[in-house]
Specification:
single chain; alpha/beta; 6-stranded mixed sheet; 40% helix; nucleotide-binding
Length: 458
């Protein structure tokens, strides 16, 4: 312990790269659910989170897109907005945005130097070292509470909700996008258990908006909202949405809420984005109706039209046509399969996928195999990667029941060579898709868009 405490007086970090390396050096401490370490960090910092208004967003899928809709509409409406999300697609700084712009590298360095001695103090206690995500969350709170002071912070959970580090805040409104099978090793293996973890972000008296649909999950949310005397706005009961048509590259849909109805356009592709947009719209309606947020219709609608979120049905190449989508669980795969017909007609669908080792790959493949002509299996450049040959074994076991008769399965463990193969075999009238873990999406995206300064991580 003496050595750990002495090391707290080590020379300050001298560069952005050193700061990120230090934060990432905490990754081996893993995911450790619980709020004790972040609470102690906040106490040592003077509780800067108590100065801020948060919109807390949890859910299995759609969290990032929902955060993007909220951020865009609020900025367009004249509010200054902090946005904390994970993982990132291009650079570590993507996690910490203010009005759509990443935290400056020099600011991140300064805040990391402020946090490092405190983290080392805690590492020397019985609580053990803070994790990477705990330090990143503390850095976000410092940035918003001590540096840029946004009017509101759009605040995405990392994993679950109840014991997630982000749950240290008391928001002005909570949003739970949906509940599905993901991180079952941590959150539980039933929808009821997973919903209970997500519902943990519901705070006494704080309204909550949700698009959760499964009866057992809805029951959990209703019980939690009742016990905390929180008003629950539930899709299908308290608000609804329906697609009208596709026009000029936008999805046009109607939103009907308890206060009024609206018609909106979104450029984000995939019918699941209508659900995300409707949930975000309901949250904004509550803020407008009960919390004096000044939100003019034309600003909100323009904010929704202009929303973009990287790696979600994102077209990054036209010759050949390549779509990136970070679907990595069964519900994401189902949405992807339903959404691809929205793109221009294609002759063959070639799909490149790579996964982490802790996901429901069999259920994922049941949704994907019926639509794929060529499946290329690879491995992301990440320590928890799934062996491509193990993925192949799962795919082969499902071939007879789910796959097309002429399905070709290719194994290429090197993701760079797998991407080249995908490009080579995709003709002008075909469609190529890269899907799976965002660690793979990040590398492929930076390669195709020629972003040499790209980083990646959780």
């Amino acid at each position: 312990m003496e050595e750990i405490i002495r090391s707290g007086a080590a020379a300050p970090l001298s560069s952005y790269t050193e700061a990120v390396d230090w934060i990432n050096s905490l990754i081996p401490f893993g995911i450790r659910p619980g709020l004790e370490r972040i609470e102690l960090l906040m106490e040592k910092l003077g509780h800067p989170h108590r100065k801020l208004k948060f919109i807390h967003v949890a859910g299995t899928n759609g969290k990032g897109s929902t955060c993007a809709f909220l951020t865009s509409a609020l900025i367009q409406s004249g509010y200054s907005v902090g946005t904390f999300t994970s993982p990132y697609i291009t650079k570590f700084t993507n996690r910490f945005q203010y009005n759509g712009t990443d935290i400056p590298e020099e600011t991140l360095l300064k805040l990391a130097n402020q946090l490092r001695p405190l983290a080392r103090e805690i590492a020397g206690s019985e609580l053990g070292s803070p994790t990477m995500f705990e330090v990143a969350t503390a850095l976000a709170i410092l940035y918003y509470g001590e540096v840029c002071y946004p009017d509101v912070v759009v605040w995405e959970t990392g994993l679950g909700g109840r014991l997630d580090v982000t749950n240290i805040v008391t928001p002005v409104i909570s949003v739970i996008t949906n509940v599905g099978h993901d991180h079952t090793d941590v959150l539980g293996d039933t929808l009821t258990l997973i919903a209970g973890e997500k519902a943990g972000i519901i705070k006494p008296g704080v309204p909550v908006v949700s698009c959760v649909s499964q009866p057992e999950a809805v029951a959990v949310l209703k019980a939690k909202a009742a016990s905390t005397r929180s008003t629950l706005y539930l899709a299908g009961e308290d608000f609804s949405y329906s697609k009208v048509k596709q026009r000029d590259g936008y999805q046009h849909f109607t939103f009907n809420g308890p206060f009024r109805g609206l018609e909106l356009d979104i450029a984000m592709k995939g019918e699941h984005q209508l659900e995300n947009a409707a949930g975000a719209m309901m949250a904004l309606e509550v803020l407008r109706q009960y919390m004096a947020f000044m939100l003019e219709d034309e600003d909100v609608l323009e904010g929704f039209r202009g929303t973009f979120w990287a790696g979600r049905l994102e077209e990054v190449s036209t010759s050949p046509r390549i779509i990136l989508d970070g679907a990595h669980n069964p519900e994401g795969a189902e949405s992807l399969a339903k959404s691809l017909p929205q793109f221009q007609p294609y002759r063959k669908l070639n799909l490149l996928m790579g996964m982490l080792a802790n996901k429901h790959h069999e259920s994922y493949l049941k949704h994907i195999l019926p639509i794929v002509d060529t499946l290329i299996l690879t491995e992301p450049d990440f320590r928890k990667k799934m062996d491509a040959e193990d993925l192949q074994a799962i795919a082969e076991s499902l071939r007879n029941k789910y796959a097309k008769d002429n399905l070709e399965i290719i194994v290429e463990r090197n993701w760079g060579q797998a991407l080249q193969k995908l490009q080579t075999i995709t003709a002008d009238d075909d469609l190529a898709v890269v899907s799976g873990t965002l660690y793979l999406i990040s590398d492929v995206r930076s390669t195709l868009l020629r972003q040499p300064d790209s980083e990646k991580g959780w």
